[in-house]
Amino acid sequence: MGTRYLYALAQNNQAPKLFLRCTNRGIPIWALLATTSISFFTFMSIGSSSSVAFQWFQKLTTVSTLSTWISICIAYMHFHAALEAQKVNRASLPFSFPLQPYLTYCTLEYLCMVVFFSGFDYIAGG
């Protein structure tokens, strides 16, 4: 999946054109090699001294994923504010959830707490 994302980014001029090169069967070979090379970081947990590096990589991945969801919550809050400013009834939308926007605020608060406490041992000097 990461290979196709990287290929799509290259098509949109958001990644180097190198990732557009495909094999005769249509496999984006350089995008595949780039995403596969990242998976080799999982082998860093094998050695006892390398477990610290793997934990850093794991926390970095977790926080970046949570940051994506935080961005989604903020985008929804702006979307909801735009609906209110234009006086659009949410019931006219193809999909509306009855607990919005309050659930978004709770989710945003929860995700921010998780991000903060995931690095708390480093902040507190542990």
UniProtKB/TrEMBL annotation:
UniProt membrane topology term: Multi-pass membrane protein
Q: Quick one: where is this thing mainly located?
A: membrane
Does the record's keyword annotation contain Membrane?
Answer: yes
Instruction: State a single Gene Ontology molecular function.
Output: amino acid transmembrane transporter activity
What are the annotated GO cellular component locations?
A: membrane
The alphabetical list of record keywords is: Membrane, Transmembrane, Transmembrane helix
- Which segments cross the bilayer? 27-48, 60-82, 102-124
Domain of life, source organism: Eukaryota
Per its UniProt record, what InterPro entries does this chain match?
AA-permease/SLC12A_dom, APC_YAT
Where located?
Answer: Membrane
- Domain Amino acid permease/ SLC12A: start-end pairs: 2-124
Listed name of the protein: Amino acid permease/ SLC12A domain-containing protein
